[in-house]
Amino acid sequence: MSSHTPMQLFISTKAQHGAAAMQPAAGLTPPVTPTIESDHSSVRGFTASRAVTSTPSGGHAVAASSPLLFCDQLEYQLDHLGRPKEFGRGLWSIVRMAFISPRADTIVRPFTPPSSPTPASRVVAVKSPARRDGHAVLQAEALTLTRIYSVPGSERHIIHFHGYIADSNSIVMSAVPLSLSKYIEEKAHLAEKNKTTRNMFEPVQGMAQWQDLAKKLITSLSWLHSHAMIIHGDIKPHNILLKPRMSIDDDANSTEFAYEPLFADFSSAHPITSSETAPGGAQTALTPPFTAPEILSALLASPDTPPTPGSDVFSLAVTLLAAATGDLLLYPRQRCLLMSKNGHQVIEFVQSGQNGTRVPKNGDVEKILRPAVLKNPDERINPDVWLNNFFPESNSLFQT
Ligand SMILES: Nc1ncnc2c1ncn2[C@@H]1O[C@H](COP(=O)(O)OP(=O)(O)OP(=O)(O)O)[C@@H](O)[C@H]1O
Ligand SMILES: [Mg+2]
Prior knowledge:
Layout: E1 9-12, E2 44-46, E3 73-76, E4 86-89, E5 93-101, E6 122-129, H1 135-149, E7 161-165, E8 170-174, H2 180-193, H3 207-226, E9 230-231, E10 240-244, E11 259-263, E12 270-271, E13 283-286, H4 293-301, H5 309-325, H6 336-340, H7 346-351, H8 364-369, H9 383-390
Helix pairs in contact: 2-5, 3-5, 3-9
Bound molecules: adenosine-5'-triphosphate and magnesium ion.
The site of magnesium ion has 4 residues, from loops.
């Protein structure tokens, strides 16, 4: 875990053995959920033939009762010591590198996702449980991804989902090795090296690039809430992956953000519709300072507190604030939890800090983020309005 990684806290919203205690990530013990054992010693495997029966319907998600299954052959990539290569690790999982190649006897799937033809062999990321109580979490995440993936346009907003391997509770996704957190650290490093009295009042990647990133992420959040009808529940720079864009000019002064940001890690996601409950195993993740203050406080009183559309809006605003300043921690580590409970003051706090010049008072960054961090979640700006007010040129929301 890098020194810039914020502390994580997790509380199960589906606790099977009583309420979970709120603990720092290191050494924490989330509630144990009954799980199926999987065989991680295998570095090669292929999966079953059954697939989910949901079909795209009117641009909205269809509730799936079983996850889309992964039907192709998978070959894990090994390093020079014979260990599987890893893309990363999270609290629940290890994400490994593998190649996917269609089996000769590939079965026709009843659900055909809106994807391009499969090349003969390509690299994928396989997310597998890192601990026994991660199995139910990944199963719930696979259900959520199945649901989102049934909505047309998902490939422009979330990580491409290839399917679920039931035997090992693993999720197969397209490989996108660069996270927004890594990108922010790199840009912060460069900006510090090239700091001048002119550019020190701009976001670390420059104002035009920051605004394009903001527009893209707000568009995706709007799509997630109003089309997929899903609350992400754990938006932060570490859970956003950056896919290089194909048709971008190489000009270093280009105003276009060079990547498609994609939401990933739906282990804390919840459906928006009141008639549905989160899949069993769903978690409410807390990563101060990105978690909305009302969720932090409520979780202390009741571990069943789910995230809300307003809490996602808050988390995205703080993510964009971190992207502007280049500082992923935002608050001093020792006071992070305490200060996160007053997260509605995050802009003032950042402005008074070391990187405050990058968010000038009444400047564009503040104007765009202010309505998204209001204390009262009901008063926070709705993503559609957010987009229309600040990026009116994107008159058709979901075109890219
Ligand atoms: N599709 C992908 N391609 C490449 N790397 C990935 C991919 N998905 C995840 N990763 C890497 O693996 C890490 C862990 O993945 P993820 O955040 O989904 O796991 P998690 O156990 O749910 O984490 P958390 O601790 O945030 O709950 C990510 O931070 C990222 O670096
Ligand atoms: Mg994560």
